[in-house]
Amino acid sequence: MERTRRRRSVLAALTAVALAVPGITALSSAARAADADVAVNGGFESGLTSWTCTAGTTVNSPVHSGSSALQATPAGGDNAQCAQTVTVQPNAQYTLSGYVRGSYVYLGASGTGTTDVSAWTQSAPDWQKLSTTFRTGAATTKVTIYTHGWYGTGAYQADDITLVGPGGSGTTQPPAAPAGLKTTTVTSSSVGLSWSAVTGATGYAVYRDGVKVQTVTGTSATVSGLAASTAYGFQVTAVNEAGESAKSAVVTATTSPGTGGGGGGGSSDLPAHALVGYLHASFANGASYTRLADVPDSWDVIDLAFGEPTSVTSGDIRFNRCPVTECPNVESDAEFKAAIKAKQAAGKKVLISIGGQNGQVQLTTTAARDTFVSSVSNIIDTYGLDGLDIDFEGHSLSLNAGDTDFKNPTTPVIVNLISALKTLKAKYGAKFVLTMAPETFFVQNGYQFYGSGKWGGQDPRCGAYLPVIHALRDDLTLLHVQDYNSGPIMGLDNQYHSMGGADFHIAMTDMLLTGFPVAGDQNNVFPPLRPDQVAIGMPASTNAGNGHVSPAEVTKTLDCLTKKTNCGSYTTHGTWPALRGLMTWSVNWDRYANWEFQKTFDAYFG
């Protein structure tokens, strides 16, 4: 006991001498810095802020601690890596740790200046801690830490990632939450916001109903693409190199009433709730041919299926009506044109639909683009149609390697299609009806994957419709995604949803009306569409396609989205009484099924 006391006394004396020597005080601050965690947002409580992920998102379950964790799913040649670069000190020792779940999950550091390190687990059915250490090189000031899974394995989770060692010279604390958030100008489709500046902030993130929708560098923003007469909640966070602040207090605003349809694309001429159907005009198949004049008045938009190209890349679209050998009851051209005029006189819209399962269209050149415009115009003018439906499927749309920003596409087939549609819209004016019918793979799948990915290896068609929809959102009358013939798709609850019930339609439509970060990038959000621009695509019968649901499930879907009742397990991010309606493949198959789909629509909307 006496010996211990003496040693403590000597140590105290040495410490006092050391602190009296100029320059030695740096030792105490360095010692304190050695205890710092220099990783930013390692618990993923601020989403993916400060992380760059190829296929990651945040989930609320399972978590190791707090309310969020990372979940990422390797696919193809992508190992679903999430990484961040942190500031470190040269010639310093660091310990990297984190908790993971899943198979073949890695945690590592690169750019150390000495030996890059990693730790991994073959199988972690529950949270398992991984840890490794490294020493930085003599000139190292930045190190990249990462976690990833392995090719072809399932999803993995990571949480509470820390890098403990001497702090770098940069900012070590996120800024404070913004104060003074208030609304400025409110219209039927937008809300202006302003707030007080935060010391140390380099930017701000704006949230609508809990979803990040915008990042700005100043202290004001305008959130657009909103529904008329709808209440929204807004929050703002401050951001710097150390991370993101807590959210501000919520400010609510209700958009003003619309003017009967809102936006372009001829939507003001449609009823508040519309029924859209495809009519087999160039073929019969098992549903048999239905004359246009025999389509019941319940159908508000009739898409003539299909106009198809002379070759995949020609851009030359031809509409060949069903031959009498296949359709014995087909009407003459004069009768067909008279039926179009009669439908229009009754307030209906008749469009030419381009593409379909067999009509692959790739506008690879400007010459093909121009041919597309002239040939489609010829069809519209010949039959006196109201507009155009784009039903590009298969390999019509894909993204070139390196084309990763849906707001600024560079792939020719995407850029040329956008240009062609804008030209047609400008030619025919405000009453021109433009609709699109993509598959879920090309739209909602973009929440997880976009194109071939930042490191390649993904299907380049993933999310390929997003740049087209975004560029034409002010001209788009209706988007009716095909919620059928689809594989499982991850929703905004970060759970996979499969066809066969209301849950799938609710989750897929919620994504369109809420918006979502593309490829999990919270700084690259696909904005929501107006509810009057959205109809839900469903097969009319079990013969029409995979994913048919009963009338009861259709009613559940509409109840949840327009009234927020009867929702089941999925929680939507809003309520949209202005949802435009339903689309089906097809009028012919619905007639074959004794008009079940039409009767369900009529019973619900009256």
From TrEMBL:
Residues 273-606 form the GH18 domain. Its EC number is 3.2.1.14. Keywords: Carbohydrate metabolism, Glycosidase, Hydrolase, Polysaccharide degradation, Signal. Gene3D superfamilies: Galactose-binding domain-like, Glycosidases, Immunoglobulins. CDD domains: FN3, GH18_chitinase_D-like. Coiled coil: none annotated. SMART domains: FN3, Glyco_18. It holds the Pfam family CBM_4_9. The keyword NAD does not apply. Residues 1-33 form the signal peptide. Residues 177-258 form the Fibronectin type-III domain. Belongs to the glycosyl hydrolase 18 family. Chitinase class II subfamily. This is chitinase. It comes from Streptomyces eurythermus. The lineage of its organism: Bacteria, Bacillati, Actinomycetota, Actinomycetes, Kitasatosporales.
